[in-house]
Amino acid sequence: MTTNILFPEVFLHYIWKLKLFDFNTLCTTDDETVELVNVGIHNHNTGPDFKDARIRIGGTLWAGSVEIHKKSSDWLMHQHQKDKAYNNTILHVVYEHDQNIYRSDGIPIPTLVLKDKIPAQYVQRYWELSTSKNKIPCEHRFFAVPVALKNIWLERLVVERLEDKTSEIRRSLEQSQNNWEVTFYQFLARNFGAKQNSMTFEALAKSLPLRVLSKHKNHLFQLEALLLGQAGFLSTSEATKTKDDYWLKLQKEYTFLAKKYQLISLNASSWQFGRMRPANFPTIRLAQFAVLIHQSTHLFSKILVEPDVNLLRKMFLIQLQGYWTNHYRLGEESSKRKKSLGEGTVDLILINTIAPFLFVYGDYKGIEMYKERAVRLLQILQPEQNSIIANWQNLGMVTDSAHDTQGLLQLKKKYCDSKRCLSCSIGHRILQMD
Fold it and tell me: Which pTM does this prediction carry?
């Protein structure tokens, strides 16, 4: 009679891989002794769970694959008996044995049962982590983990986060025929959009080629017309809501340029204005983006040769003039205020665009200096402030720089949210605590 096993198969993979069980007195269900010479290499693709294992069974040394299941009958449930890839299985490792299993040639597969070999504390700790309702599954035991271990893990997570972004940037590079300036322009646009409008801003950049903007970079008004028009804010349907003299001039300019370059605008309804400060309204960010293009030439190339973080910041010092000093939205007059990118916003651009691009450029070109610059930049920049970071700070994590917060954001997003505690160094330590 079998029981309801309250953990997934991946837990058994973890236990087997790290030999977190009593492996000194093992025997198969047929009472043959089992000696683990090599548990094998964890296979994350199709086929048996562990390959290239070396196991002595009943005095004979076998080399081949190991398949792991919660119950022996899972072999049949998963249809392995019909898959030739499993014919090289030398040992079937299960938590509970409920059925004898045979190879396709009728020869029984030796079975090893782990149910009474795994320390109860591992099962209990894993159950606590996997069923936790807390935002950080291990928060009740988090303080018991050595600070040194946490810091080493965060160092690795920062690089992992940069590598994740590298994959995304590389895909975009392929689409732009390895044009770094174009790819950088599109990712920079995404981060100008802030959280609520990031994807819409990126869609705008992809619909409005950089080569078009570059032809008009010396004319700020034309850049504004192109960006605001392409965003949909100068469409006829917007006229009744936003019509004023400046709007009319912008619309006239965009209509001419859109026809010239065969542009099709986005829908203005794609943009979010709700639940955000007026300084972050998409109309303001688009006007600021126009200024950035107006005052910059080959921006990415300049960033590659500028190691000074303060000079990098200066590249993004943007002050809106004229119409925008008393407008947050087209056609809606407001009190007169300076509208510039705040230091915090500029730092977020450096964190989320500049650092990843330095890293991927170094990786692509095989130049470690750029990858080191990316990490060093994060170490210099101020830590991010948001609810996720606040939760980590409540757990005693010190955040002195963006390097610290980027590591913690990666930990939360890639491990805590999906409860990948078995793949986390902190979870690994907690699982094995006395």
Answer: 0.87
